[in-house]
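TA notes. Do not distribute before section.
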Amino acid sequence: MPVVSPDMADVAIVGGGPAGLTAGLFLQKNGQEATVFDTDDTWMHKAHLFNYPGIGSVDGTAYLETLRAQVDSFGVTREQGVEVTDVSSEAEGFTVTTDDGDVEADYVVLATGANRELAETLGCEFDGDVVDVDVTMETSVDDAYATGAMVRAEEWQAVISAGDGASAALNILTRERGEHFHDFDVPADAEATFGDD
């Protein structure tokens, strides 16, 4: 997929594993412009999923390919192979810095696995070795979220990370809409979106 470099996104997501891609999917599906920066440096390439609900058995790389195709189908901007070197908090959001330039965003979701350097640079509070978050995955920095292995000492599971990404996305959507937001679809929604596939 070609790299597109927008100057502005509603939400910048750093990391393209289960947490980052899930956050992007939920946000874009519900009207927020999501940009995922994905270096493809994820443990999923070493994984085989037997314990992900609804999936009997799948190689981690195959799972990622399916998830990427899904987020692409909703129009998420994926900056594949683009590394984020810095994230800074500004008066009106965040600046995400890459070698290809800067992207401004209203929100940022950090989904970089056990690599917590960007959270530290951003000034997020830590609880021991992990980033301190509330139940919505928001950090001590307003409108900045951390997910997955960044916030957990041991529970590094794809399904938990995906749930963290969804939680962050739903909280952002709730803030943007000014009321509690649920992303709950019924069969008619799928038919309207995808037809009779």
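Switch to the second chain here.
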Amino acid sequence: MGAPPDVLAPPPPPSRGLISRVVPPSVLGRRRALLLIERDLMVYRRQWMIVISGLFEPLFYLLSIGVGIGKLVGNVHGGGESVSYEAFVAPALMASSAMNGAIYESTMNVFFKLKYAKVYEAVLATPVSVADVALGEVGYALLRGAAYAVVFLFVMVAMGLVASWWAVFAVPAAILIGFAFAGTGLAATSFMKSWQDFDLVQLAILPLFLFSATFYPLSTYPPGIRLLVRVTPLYQGVALLRSLTLGHVGPATLGHVAYLAVMGAVGPRIATRRLGRLLQP
């Protein structure tokens, strides 16, 4: 006699939720990137001083140049009105703080894990993919940049350097700045061969910091240099945070957001392809 029909019949397919029916599995799989963020948080919990040390440099600039030189400079013309020099410089330094936190985490630390610690070879032995690695490292860099931005905003509020309620969006804006630089830094790291290559990172970061209308208005530049400054990524972040903390929000603000969002979206895509070639040749 043949086997009962219920034995011969294949098992019914597992039930799928509405989200899994609509969203592609590749998108749902990106949640594994959270595991890499968790791993980074566990590693750095005993090295917290390394993480917070990056916050001090822009704070020192604010206290020395913003407050010290600000007493000599007085008010400057920013966003259509005269504001104190400290209020003009502070959002720019906040943008620099978010940039520093994201770029250093996505370059030097990722390079060490990639070339020396061989962390990603072990990670890829699990169901975590190369895309998860890229998103996880960008996500952790965002956490570091966001932490810097929150602390810096508290300092600005305590010093009375916030002039508008639009400043509540300053932290999300700083995270967007970190997103742009984290993705770009991760992509750049995938091309680096040795520690000497990080001199190029400094060669890029220092001019951005000094010449992104950080310490003086854009109008002080000659017309040709002014156009060049306008297209640099840190200037977009500086102008975005300055418009929020001073309350000069307009159509140009959306342009800064779009610029940084596109920059942040392109970086991880390049990094994913490059890391795939390096880790899965």
